[in-house]
Amino acid sequence: MIGAPFRPARLPAGLPPLLLVVVDTEEEFDWSKPHDPMSRSVASIAEQRHAQALFEQFGVKPTYVVDHPVAATEASAAVFKDWAATGRCLIGAHLHPWVNPPEGEALNARNSYPGNLPAELEREKLRILTGTIAANIGVQPKIYKAGRYGLGANTPGILKELGYEIDLSVVPATDFSEDGGPNFKGYPHDPYWFGGGLLEIPLTRGYPGILGRFGEPAHHLATSGLGRALRLPGILARLRLVERIPLTPEGMSAADNCRLTRYLAKAGRQVFTYAYHSSSLLPGGAPYVRTLDERQAFLDGIEAFLEFFTGELGGRGTTPWEIKSLAAGTDIPGSAAD
């Protein structure tokens, strides 16, 4: 896991709310079973056009962080090669170790977080992924999102060595350590510089309950061992005291996403990351969408949120590069310009 120091990436005052869309673009697999290196189907990629059309309608350019099965499959790579070449999206890298050569690690939950791998293996897997994306999609990726949000102590150095500039992996106020993943409790919610000049743009999470700014520490207490035993998370949510809402169409309604965004915007948040998995657009490809009707509801939720964000909220779409440019104009470490 990356460590301090973190330096805030301050954006100019007076900007409208900025929406970054990030799609974890990956193979379909059974989320309830151990990770299988043979699960490499990318049938969902042909379905991405449904959401892409909505993003274009609202002037939002999504960032597709692509893993090895997607980049190595001719048909799926061709989709993103066309969209990237015509300026309709951005491309980044997304490392799922269990389906990314070279092999070498034991297949277990801990090693599904790429940052837990030996440094040499993590680097070689990302080097191969980077080259595959460049060769097949025509983009040299400089934006990274670790599979399973799995940053590690060696990741910043590897990213810099391979030419990456922006990371999208951090999930603030979230602890994945139960099965060996990183613990992001205490990490900043707003963009920041780390690792000698890398820019982190965290995912968006919030606690729009009655407890307000005390919601996050209250939620941490409620999700402790004793709190879970007493079923405190559910009790606090039902009472609207503390609600932990991620900004995503997966398992969240458009109303929830809008309520979270209003709350955070009122508190001064400038950048919002809206994220989901590519497999959610294929019925049966992910737990959130099982039927065609559910997919339509999923797409309707995306459309409703985009309409809210660009309409009622007065916001607009952004990209990781725009955020970096805005931050660099006001506050950038010397090494970030290297």
List the helices and strands and how they pair.
Blueprint: E1 7-8, E2 18-25, H1 49-57, E3 63-66, H2 68-72, H3 74-85, E4 90-95, H4 119-137, E5 143-146, H5 155-161, E6 166-167, E7 192-194, E8 198-200, E9 205-206, H6 215-222, H7 225-229, H8 232-238, E10 245-246, H9 254-266, E11 271-277, H10 292-310, E12 316-317, H11 320-328
Parallel strand pairs: 2-3, 2-11, 2-12, 3-4, 4-5, 5-6, 6-8
Antiparallel strand pairs: 1-7, 7-8, 9-10
Helix pairs in contact: 1-10, 9-10
SSE sequence, one letter per element: EEHEHHEHEHEEEEHHHEHEHEH
Shape: globular
What is the CA-CA span between the terminal residues?
24 Å
* Text of the CATH class of the largest domain: Alpha Beta
The stretches of 5 or more residues where confidence is low (pLDDT under 50) are 331-338
Arithmetic mean pLDDT? 91
User: What gyration radius follows from the Cα positions, in whole Å?
Assistant: 19 Å
**The CATH architecture of the largest domain:** Alpha-Beta Barrel
Count of helical segments?
A: 11
Indicate how many domains the architecture comprises: 2
Topology-level CATH name of the largest domain: TIM Barrel
Q: What is the beta-strand fraction? A: 5-15%
The computed structural class is: alpha/beta
Q: How many β-strands, per DSSP?
A: 12
Helix content: 25-40%
Q: How many strands, what sense, and barrel or not for the largest sheet?
A: 10 strands, mixed
